[in-house]
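User: I'm putting together a small comparison set for a docking exercise, and I want a reference complex before I start. The sequence is below, and the ligand is tryptophan. Could you produce the 3D structure with the ligand included, as structure tokens?
Assistant: Of course. I'll restate your input first, then give the structure tokens for the complex.
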Amino acid sequence: MERIFSGIQPSGEIHIGNYVGAIRNWVRLVDQYECIYCVVDYHAITVEYEVALMQRRILETATILLACGLTPEKCIVFVQSHVPEHTELAWIFNCVTPIGELERMTQFKEKAKQHRQNINMGLLDYPVLQAADILIYKAGYVPVGEDQVQHVELCRDIARKFNARFGLTFPEPQVLLSAAPRILGTDGQAKMSKSMNNTIGLLDPPSVIWEKLRTAVTCPHREKRYDPGHPEHCNIYTMHTAFSKPDQLEYVEKGCRTAAIGCIECKEILSKNMIEELIPIQDRVKAINEKSHYIHEVLTSGADRARAIAQKVMEEVRTKIGVKFRPQE
Ligand code: TRP
């Protein structure tokens, strides 16, 4: 079976954007591929963060992955810092990666703008660690969103450069783009993100979900109830495409265009569907949290399984680059 690797940052609350764009897609892949999914804590420290909260965020992220169906019977789930071979390989990759390539990464430029007072080496090196995450398992496919395509391309470059200098070792991994719609924040403006305060959390209780949807921005053309709308310009409609069945989708689409329904009815249908999908996940999160050692055990054995693969590849890399001692004659 072909191998997949993907990672998610433990950076605060997991929201429906992460769920629709990444996690739900990861779940669909576990039957077709050998899947390795990682909570990338070493990536999360490249920007300012609250030390006292980190532990809880890592555990909460891992718990959500499990609750969404990424269970140890189906795939490997683990925490990046538990397998030090990731950072070890990143160092070697540093030595084949031109700085210029890193400086032109869109995400680096954006984050450098957002965090002017802390443009550290880790922020620049972020894509190299990401390449090491993928290649330490020789993964062939990487399911990510549009915003990570550039990083996976750099990963292919790094694999190519390493192979050219030290001999064929790594595959050139391909992106598996999910067909998922890009959900914006409840402001209808920016991508959903904690820092923008425009998220719907995967663990938000139903009343909070409804309140956030009720007040969310809709199609700008529908100022009054009898103004016809344009679903293609409405973030609520985008969410419908992610959470509603075809017949309801058609109903709200037509209803909006002809002003037969109002935004509130449209949002009520969405809210009901979203809550219906999220409740079972929230229930499983609660059940996992009640078994106090369970998540720790899953992550420990996940790391063991990942490390077994990573250590072998790292041995091969040490041999290829000429640092491994051969037995003395
Ligand atoms: N950079 C990715 C993101 O922000 C997370 C990530 C880290 C990742 N390492 C990875 C994704 C390896 C795919 C493969 O979403």
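The beta strands are 3-8, 34-39, 76-79, 141-144, 174-177. The longest strand covers residues 3-8.
User: Thanks, that's exactly what I needed.
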